[in-house]
Structure formats: C-alpha cells, structure tokens
TrEMBL record:
Root EC class: hydrolase
GO molecular function terms attached to this record: ATP binding; hydrolase activity; RNA binding; RNA helicase activity
UniProt xrefs under SUPFAM superfamilies: P-loop containing nucleoside triphosphate hydrolases
EC number: 3.6.4.13
PANTHER family in alphabetical order: ATP-DEPENDENT RNA HELICASE DBP3
Listed PROSITE patterns: HELICASE_ATP_BIND_1, HELICASE_CTER, Q_MOTIF
Native source species: Dillenia turbinata
Statement: the UniProt record of this protein carries the keyword Zinc-finger: no
InterPro entries: DEAD/DEAH_box_helicase_dom, Helicase_ATP-bd, Helicase_C-like, P-loop_NTPase, RNA_helicase_DEAD_Q_motif
Keywords annotated in UniProt: ATP-binding, Helicase, Hydrolase, Nucleotide-binding, RNA-binding
Region feature (Disordered): 1-73
Residue interval(s) of motif Q motif: 74-103
Name under which the protein is recorded: RNA helicase
Residue intervals of the Helicase C-terminal domain: 314-499
Length: 510
C-alpha cells in the first residue's frame, strides 16, 4: 500500500472543497491537545463460488462470503457473546434480537478467520450496533492495550459512537477513549501513551497520536471505518485513512478491516477493490436503496422569503408537536441567515456548522439529543450518521449539490439527509384513525412483532420537504428523482395549510 500521508495544509485544501463543513481538523496544529472530552492486506479478488446467506426476512441484502460458511444469527446468543455483553444488550440497550443487518453482518465480523468486511446498510438499520458489538467482542479484557479502532468523519459521529459503546459495554470492564479535537492546550508530547482497549475518533487526531507514538498499533485486532464511503473518497479523508492503514500494516498487527456505510459509489467501490483483499461483502440491492420509510415532498416557492414562510407558518407551526426538525442548508452563510430570520420571528432554533467552537458544537448536539431544543439548522455536518429517534421532519432548505458541479445533485448526501427522519426501529401502528408512535431505541423488534398480530403496521420514519424556487432547483430535484427511480410528490400550494396537513397525515404524523 502506498504511503499517502499529507500535511495539514494539504488536508485543509482537500477537505475545504466539500459542502459538508467537516474540515475542523484541518485547522489543528501539530501540537493540538487531544484529551478525551467529557461524556455522561486491501484488492478484492472475485470470491470463489460466492454463497448468499439465507434470511427469508431480508432478500434485498446480497452477500458474498467466498469459501467461509456463515449462519445468520437469529438471537444474540447465537453469536457466543460474553455474559457481560449480553447483559449490556438486554439491560442497557433494551434489545431483544438482532436486526436483519445485524443478523447477517455480525457472524462475518465475529467468526474466524475474521475476514475483512465491506458492508452497506440503510440509514438507521442498526449498523452502529454491528461494529460496536464487533469491537467489544474482539477485545481481550485482560490485555491493557489498544485492540479496536474506529475512525469517523466528524467529532459528532465519533462521540455518538462512543456513547453507544459505553452503554453497550457497561458491564464488560473494557476501557475506551475518544480521539477527537478539543479546545484545551495540552501538547501532544505531554500526554501519556494510550492504554484504552477501544479508541474511537476522527482521522486527523488518530493520525497525530500514531505519529507521536502515543497510540500503539501492534495489538490491534479490528479497524472500523464508519461512513466508509466518505473516509475513502478523494474529497474526504482518503489520504489520512490510507496512512493509518499503512501504519497498522507496518506494526505487524493482524487486523480485520470493517467498512460500513449507507452508500458506496462506483469510484469508492473500485478503490476498495484495489485495497481490501479477501473480503466478505454485504450490499443492499440498488433498487432497494431507497427512502420508502420517509415520505418525501417538494414545495415550489416563488422566492427565498417564501421558503422562510413555509418553514415558519407550515412546517414549524403544524409540526411543533410532532417531534424534532432538522433543516439542512448548503453553507454556513445560509445557516446564519436562516437562523437570524427565524429568531427575529420569535422562533427558538439552534444552528450547527463547522465554524463553531468544538465545545459549542458539542453543547448544541447534546441539547438537541436531550430534547431541550426542537429545531436544528445544520450544514451537512450532521447529514451522516447522526442518530436521534425524535426527528420526524427533515427540511432541505437548499438541495444538496456537488461542490465542483453546482448544477448536479449530490444524491448520496440527499440520501443521508433524508435518512435522519427514517431511523431504524421506529414503527407506526395504525389503530382506528389515530397514528400511535412507538419509539424503541436501537434495534428491538419484539414489541413490534407482538403488535403486528393485533394491528395493521407499516414502517414510517417521518417526512422530508424539499423547498424549490427556481428552474435550477427544479432540474436538480428531477435528477434526484431519476437517480432513485422515485417520483417525489408535490405539495399543491405553498400557502395552503390544508395541503401541508394532508402531507403530514400521509406520512403518519397527524
């Protein structure tokens, strides 16, 4: 594997081309402190006679496992987990049985010879549990050294994954540390070597810890890339990711590589095929990679001020009792403008984007997750992996476009954005004429299975409104519809309360 290390200035130039506002690590100097924040061989050969795991409940998932046989796990006990891990799953996570994605992918992660895994999973399908449980299961509690490493594109996602790990691993005694940028002044050379058994963090900080010889790699057993498509993309963190993998290879560690993402474009797939060898694969069939759990609408607005009126008078006023709302904008300027406009109209909203101080971003995310705030304006900083079960409404104030081709939609970002309202494990049960929401955090199906015998049930993750006001927006929306092979319904009038109420009823929210 070629050494692909880059210095900080090069990295900043690369990441700044993304609309996602996730380049906060580029501003770090080589002496940036990195204490943990407070928190309550890669070409894939063609597999020989690929075998498909049989799971009658999920024929849309295709797997290729080479010559290694696997059995889909129907219960967590089938995975031979430790009693302490089982207790964490049942008592803390309140799980009952593996989700479809977990039932298929976990045997691949946990069964010798621990082959690499490239896995695609829907937003909210329970993929975080897959790799967190995989990391905890691979750790030897008696060995006080880093054994599992998870790399994420943003500090928010890294901290969120750490929270899941702390909860799931509560009874195991396994130690962990977050490798994310912080605002303190402790130089890297002053910190003690990392002895925690699981490390979850962002690529810039992890790379610095390795370069400073603070993070040892020789005992590493599993390396996870969350949102792997972005971690290995040219305009993402590909150089840092390759450098970390090269360092692991040099250490002599026999390390399993696990890549999870909701999307993998052809460019990333081709790259992975040259880098990850002798892998298992799990992909959602392209025709099933959709957002059927989220009702999507387009709203034609005559001008920018009408877009603000739609958010204020229709979406926020009608949806104020329906849970939380995330409004996605394209740039920091748009975020500030929209925040100011809504605040002047008396609405309490919070805004998050990459220019904020890290401690302020952490506070905003925590308040939103705790339900203290109901409306969050965000750049694409939170488009990926942000898991909040109370989000029922997503608004695309600006449609996502590619930075270098602003007339072309970024369909993968669209998928990630709208997926914030379609988190796994939430079901709507229709009884008479009233929609009853059951929020069951994580991947627990048992309650849903019982109710399925009594009521008509269907998945419903919420609603997404795409605001369109000119021919360019209209052309971009049409391209998104063609990409997903799905026609997005139009709200007949941007001024009609009745039309918006009908849309929310169709989404199961009223």
């Amino acid at each position: 594997m070629a050494d692909a290390a880059t210095d900080s200035s090069t990295k900043a130039a690369t990441v700044s081309k993304s609309w996602g506002d996730i380049a906060e690590e580029a501003a770090e100097s080589s002496s940036s402190p990195t204490p943990e924040p407070e928190m309550s061989a890669l070409a894939i050969g063609e597999p020989k006679e690929p075998k498909t795991l049989e799971d009658p409940d999920d024929s849309s998932i295709e797997t290729a496992t080479g010559d290694t046989p696997y059995t889909s796990a129907k219960t967590f006990e089938d995975l031979n987990l430790s009693p302490e891990l089982l207790k964490g799953l049942y008592v803390e996570m309140k799980f009952e049985r593996p989700s479809k994605i977990q039932a298929i992918s976990l045997p691949m992660i946990l069964t010798p010879p621990y082959k690499d895994l490239v896995a695609q999973a829907h937003n909210g399908s329970g993929k975080t549990t897959c790799f967190v449980l995989g990391m905890l299961s691979r750790v030897d509690p008696a060995l006080k050294a880093p054994q599992a490493l998870c790399i994420c594109p943003t500090r928010e996602l890294a901290i969120q994954n750490m929270e899941v790990l702390l909860k799931m691993g509560k009874y195991t005694g396994i130690t962990s540390e977050a490798a994310v940028p912080t605002g303190t002044d402790l130089p890297i050379y002053k910190r003690m070597p990392i002895m925690s058994q699981v490390v979850i963090g962002t690529p810039g900080t992890i790379k610095k810890w390795i370069s400073a010889k603070k993070l040892g790699l020789r005992d590493l057993k599993i390396l996870v890339f969350d949102e792997a498509d972005h971690m290995l993309a040219e305009d993402g963190f590909k150089d840092d990711s390759l450098r970390i993998m090269k360092d692991i290879e040099r250490s002599g560690a026999r390390c399993q590589v696990v890549l999870f993402s909701a999307t993998f474009d052809d460019t990333v797939k081709n790259f992975v095929s040259r880098v990850v060898k002798d892998r298992n694969e799990m992909f959602v069939k392209k025709e099933d990679l959709s957002l059927d759990a989220v009702k999507q609408y387009k709203v034609r607005c005559p001008d920018e001020s009408a877009k603000i009126s739609v958010i204020k008078d229709k979406i926020l006023d009608l949806g104020q009792k329906l849970g939380q709302t995330i409004i996605f904008v394209r740039s920091r300027h748009s975020a500030s403008m929209l925040h100011k406009s809504l605040a002047q109209l008396g609405y309490e909203v919070t805004t998050i984007q990459g220019a904020l101080r890290q401690e302020d971003r952490d506070k905003i995310v925590k308040e939103f997750k705790d339900g203290l705030t109901q409306v969050l304006i965000s750049t694409d900083l939170l488009a990926r992996g942000f898991d909040q079960s109370q989000v029922n409404l997503v608004v695309n104030y600006d449609l996502p476009v590619k930075h270098d081709s602003p007339n072309e939609p970024d369909c993968e970002v669209y998928l990630h954005r709208v997926g914030r309202a379609g988190r796994f494990g939430r079901k709507v049960v229709n009884g008479r004429r009233i929609g009853v929401w059951i929020y069951y955090k994580g991947s627990c199906h048992a309650l849903g299975n019982i109710l399925e015998l009594l009521f008509e049930k269907h998945s419903a993750g919420g609603a997404a409104f795409n605001l369109i006001y000119d021919d360019r927006d209209d052309a971009i929306m049409q391209k998104i519809e063609r990409h997903f092979g799905k026609s997005v319904a139009e709200v007949p009038s941007w001024e009609s309360d009745h039309d918006f109420e009908a849309a929310l009823k169709e989404a199961g929210l009223l």
